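User: Before I run my own analysis I want an independent prediction to cross-check against. Here's the chain; please return only the structure tokens and, at the end, one sentence I can use as a sanity check.
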Amino acid sequence: MGRYILRRLVQMIPLLLGISIIIFLVIQAAPGGPETVFLGQGRFVDPEIMEKYRQRLGLDQPIYVQYLRWIGAALRGDFGYSYTAARPVSQMILERLPATLELMAVGFVLAAIIALPLGIYSAIRQYSIFDYLGTSFSFLGIAMPVFWFGLILQLIFAVRLGWLPTSGRITVGNTGFGDQVAHLILPAVVLSLRYIAGWSRYMRASFLGVINTDYVRTARSKGLSEQRVALVHALKNAAIPVVSIMALDLAGLFSGAVITETIFAWPGIGRLFIQAMFDRDYPLLMGILMLGSLMVVFFNLIADIIYGILDPRITYD
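Assistant: Structure tokens:
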């Protein structure tokens, strides 16, 4: 296992390098540029002033020169300065990262504690009313637009009932734990909805594939209770593909936070990404996108490791 992990870590280097090249080229190919935001869109600007801005930002250089300068600095931990904020990109990301990780962690835990029991019980009570309701909820959760669901929750629980705040991470002047939890509830529910719907279906299908196997029937024939058969003998094997999918979806939580954070004005990476995209802030976009790519590659490795731990038949040597 140790050699496999080391080999995968080495393979991540050229993979991330290739991803950085693609992202850099896509960003450079976007219409407009950061100078259009600085100088105002639709306004006449002296071409000489425009050129000075481009020289100052290094945008007058060929694309390959710009990339080599960026990757050279990035390897030293320097992702450049934000065009609009004139601050180090790494500093801006580190300031917003805790809020995003908090939202991701709560959304992941909430999705897991709802989806797994829901899928298991639906499999045990196959074709029951509960199973049909669970299936309908899953289809609804997968099909429902995240932004629409978030707005509906804001309208009901924040505007109409007044139980929860509409946006933000904390209330100004109130740093209590209860206030932070209240702000976290709605965005965490919205972020976890799609994963609750998907994971519960995966859990149901996987559990149904295990519950009628020979070793489970043998456990029943020994007189064990149905609960013990399900939770002790069937759950471990049924959970193997589901846990792997959950680990892979961790990176999806990061990308899903972009919409959720925007709806609820959550001060995290997702909201910062939207702001950087509208401002054509190339260094900040590169830093955020590379962080997301790193998370995808890293959580793929975590999924492979978890799969090997849960299933002893798999060897990586």
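Sanity check: The chain has two domains: 2-74, 93-310.
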